[in-house]
Amino acid sequence: MAERPLTLTALAWSIPGRGQKEIAMFKKLFGFIVLGIIVVLGISTIVLTRDGELITPDGSGTIALGAGTFEAFELPDYAAAAVTSDYKSYFVEVEPGIKVHVLEVGTGYPVYMQHGNPVSGLLYRKVAAELPQDQFRLIMPTMVGLGYSSKIPASEHTLENHINWMGKALTSIGVEELIYVGQDWGGPIGMGVLARSPDLLKGAVVMNTGFIAPTEERALSTMHATVSTPVVGEFLVEGFSSIYDNIQQVQGDPASMPQSVKDLYARPVNESGNIKAPLALMRMVPAGPDHPSVPQMREIEAYAKSLDIPAELVWGMRDPILAQGLEPMKSVFPDAPVTETEAGHFLQEEVPSDIAQAVQRVHAQVIAAKDEASEE
């Protein structure tokens, strides 16, 4: 004879001395537990899927630059310890309540260094340390939503918005020409800015990013595909863990992201009251030709392919996300020298000297071209 399945009622009856009253109490208690779990999950879902709110940071005092006076921002001690005392730290308000935090150091030829997700302008501090600061003005702005820049609702994280905000910041600080250095989202956002101000760009160093708009459905990574699902993404990135907890896993050398470095990027977001940017920026990555970011990506792709400037590629070949992007990038810059490294995704933390050397070589070509043009 086949065994009967063990139901809750049968389980209760199997307990010696249990009567109908005890069974009813048992079932009621079980119902309350299930209801409690449903309520907790429902509340968690509502909280996690909120759009977030605008959070505008406040500075203290002012700082004078050639282009005008800006709101100064004193770095917290843990961040100030990561840079030298001659760094300038200030806000550029690009729209009411939307402030872009800018770090810069040095004087000389402007170098615009754009980071991506989920870090900040501090990502370039090691590269800056490798460059002669009497020759370069190193400009390291932080994307809105990250670092010490304003935090915004998740729905406002669009490629168009980020290009516009960063473009206004760059215009405000009085740059007439520059060398561009970009990685991750700093690639499309930075190149998008320059596509709309083409006279600025004289040379480029490009790292682990992409400029080509998708023509078919394809996720950048399994994680990007997973978090694109509503609610699932919120629970994975904002609920069960933080994107910063395991950021070392995308590095060639995980030791390049110790807790002190993670804190540089995580604390300003986690302590702000709005942690929506990392997930929103992951969802901003186009996974197919119908994605909302695609019109801007097509504009960026066309512009990048039209460039005839000194350029170099520096690539982290142990990047689990964008190592695969090197060959497509070679098609954009077919004549650019390539430095392949054993670094991972955030190669600024692992091979800053390789990046700095590429900047110097590109700068030498820019100056040589300018001298040649002046002699004609």
Q: State the total count of DSSP E strands.
A: 10
Mean pLDDT: 91
Low-confidence stretches: 37-41
What shape does the CA trace take?
globular
CATH class: Alpha Beta
Helices and strands, in order, run as HHEEHEEEHEHEHEHHHHHEHEH
Q: Which superfamily, in CATH terms, is the homologous superfamily?
A: Alpha/Beta hydrolase fold, catalytic domain
Total of DSSP H or I helical runs spanning 4+ residues: 13
Strand content: 15-25%
What number of structural domains do the residues give? 1
Widest sheet, order of strands = 1-2-3-4-6-5-7-8-9-10
User: Which structural class do the helices and strands define?
Assistant: alpha/beta
The separation of the N and C termini measures 101 Å
What level of helicity do the residues show? 25-40%
**CATH topology call:** Rossmann fold
For the biggest sheet, the summary is: 10 strands, mixed
Radius of gyration: 25 Å
> Which architecture name does CATH use?
3-Layer(aba) Sandwich
Describe the structure.
The chain has 376 residues and is an alpha/beta fold. The protein has a single domain (71-375), classed as Rossmann fold, CATH 3.40.50. 39% of the residues lie in helices and 16% in strands. The protein has 13 helices and 10 strands. The chain has helices at 8-13, 20-48, 77-80, 125-129, 159-172, 186-195, 222-227, 232-239, 259-270, 277-283, 294-306, 326-332, 352-375, and strands at residues 62-65, 68-72, 88-95, 98-105, 109-114, 136-141, 178-183, 201-207, 311-316, 338-341. The protein has a 10-stranded mixed beta sheet, sandwiched between helices. The chain is globular. The termini are far apart. The relative contact order is 0.13.
